[in-house]
Amino acid sequence: MTDEERNEMVVTPWEVRGKVDYERLIREFGTQPLTDDLLRKLSKHTGKLHLQLQRGLFFSHRDLDIVLDQYEKGTKFVLYTGRGPSGPVHIGHLVPWIFTKHLQEKFDTRLYFQMTDDEKFVVDDELSLKETARYGYENALDLIALGFEPEKTFIIYDVRDIDLLYDIALEVAKRITYSTAKATFGFQDDTNLGWIFWPSIQAVPCFIHKKLTGENVPALIPAAIDQDPYWRITRDIAQKLGYYKPAQIHCRFLPGLGIGGKMSASEPETSIFTIDKPEVVKKKIWNAFTGGRPSKAEQKKMGADPDICTVYQYFVYLFEEDDQKLAEREKRCRSGEVMCGECKIELAERVNRFLAEHQRKRENAKKIVEKFHIKR
Ligand code: TYM
Known about the structure:
The structure is a single chain. By secondary structure, the chain is of the alpha/beta class. The protein folds into two domains: 21-253, 3-Layer(aba) Sandwich (Rossmann fold); 268-364, Tyrosyl-Transfer RNA Synthetase (Orthogonal Bundle), CATH 1.10.240.10. Helix content is 51%, strand content 10%. The protein has helices at residues 3-7, 22-29, 36-46, 51-54, 64-72, 91-107, 117-123, 129-145, 162-174, 178-185, 193-197, 199-203, 208-213, 228-238, 278-286, 296-302, 310-319, 323-334, 340-365; strands at 10-11, 16-17, 32-33, 58-62, 78-83, 111-115, 153-157, 219-224, 247-251. A seven-stranded mixed sheet has the order 3-4-9-8-5-6-7, sandwiched between helices. It has a two-stranded antiparallel sheet with strand order 1-2. A hairpin with a 4-residue loop joins strand 1 (10-11) and strand 2. The radius of gyration is 21 Å and the shape is globular. 41% of the residues are buried. Ligand 1 is lined by residues 13, 80-84, 92-93, 95-96, 114, 116, 119, 202, 221, 223-224, 226-227, 251, 253-254, 262-263.
């Protein structure tokens, strides 16, 4: 791959590369920005805006306005999100799930969570069905550790639950042509057949609530923007099948700890996994890319640049809720009062505190994981 190709922005459900220009994604994907007006409308129901909205981590949507209008007129909605279980969960994956949990609490609504053990099997040459099923179980523990309510949270393990999904998947697949799928996902001659059919399975949980309860309500999907191509094709056919178009709320990618790029399990050195031990977290953060200067003397004199610093981004998005303290940290960074080592040590402490609690809850989740399995 040439440098030019490496730097070129690519955002698909399977690959995120180059510097991500979120404004450009809104234009190219045809989504809507989350405006202040819409956020005000949302906060009428949620009270104070969630940190991820306040700090702009969620930035774009499709039909959130329509879903809220309907809600105000008495039509509820369900939440839908998911995970492709190809390995352990990292803290980037937790971003949309934490926000989903907030929405479940505020709107008192069901969540359908799809564990796509089939997707990861067809897409990844290295993984067996046994492995993706095992990761499915492990990843469900991370979801449950976040505190979702068992009565309202329904995990679908695709392979195990295919009988529940298959009829709707066929209805979807019949109405999407190969040329649409190819244009949307970039399929090639050597793409395997399983992968080509697979997007019709990711569409199913948008519609499954009606089959299970008889109620026809829209689904709202919180996820990072990489999943959007699925919803484009699903939205095209939803009404033909008698359902609402699924709505979305999209987040940015939590960056990895290296230079540029999203946190990605395929780059373990720059990703923090929820099962990482404290020493491992400390080491990864110690090696993080910051906006610091080459020497202490230069940094004291000229200050550092929080805009390009991964450590600072983690405080912004997840680990510093207090706006005033965040502004103070930024000021001290720019003025050269604080050295990068200090911020790294503080961040590692906060991440480890969060993970210690998460890992404890994850252990407890083993006792209740079956309660979350979707019922017929
Ligand atoms: P997967 O396993 O790639 O990702 C799971 C969720 O995490 C989001 N995500 C991130 N969010 C913030 N920062 C990051 N660095 C980051 N990396 C990943 C993804 O957008 C996703 O929301 N095909 C899907 C599984 C799936 C799904 C869904 C996801 C099935 N149905 C409905 C969302 C909504 C997948 O492989 O996700």
